[in-house]
Amino acid sequence: MSHAAITSSTSAFVGQSVRVATPARALRPRAAASLATPCVAKLEKGDKVKVTSSVTVYHVLGMKGAAVDLNGMEGEVHSRADDLDGVYISANLEVKIQFPIPGNDKGKMFIAHMKEDEVEKV
């Protein structure tokens, strides 16, 4: 640990000095975006997909918070949550899929975040 990484401060106990060390990860330089891993994905924007596993959502418009199971529904990949200007970033649910609202004839859609292994290309 370098001497510059250690600072002194006065503690709550009168007259006692406490040494505070900066974590080593804070001292490391950050990697440039150009050195990051490029994003490579199976599903791209505009791909038609079908949900293959049981996924329950509660945010469908017109359903008033009722549970909607997406298993068997078909939709379109709206965008990817793990792609930031061509650079891979971590995302738990990496694909944003746009589905038509069940029972709505006006063409309204809703978006759900999903994993790639929960859907398949149609």
UniProtKB/TrEMBL annotation:
Domain Ferredoxin thioredoxin reductase alpha chain intervals: 46-118
Domain of life: Eukaryota
Keyword Oxidoreductase part of the UniProt annotation: yes
Gene3D superfamilies listed in its UniProt record: 2.30.30.50
GO molecular function annotation: oxidoreductase activity
Keywords from the UniProt entry: Oxidoreductase
GO-annotated biological processes: photosynthesis
Annotated family: Belongs to the ferredoxin thioredoxin reductase alpha subunit family.
Protein name: Predicted protein
Taxonomic placement: Eukaryota, Viridiplantae, Chlorophyta, Mamiellophyceae, Mamiellales
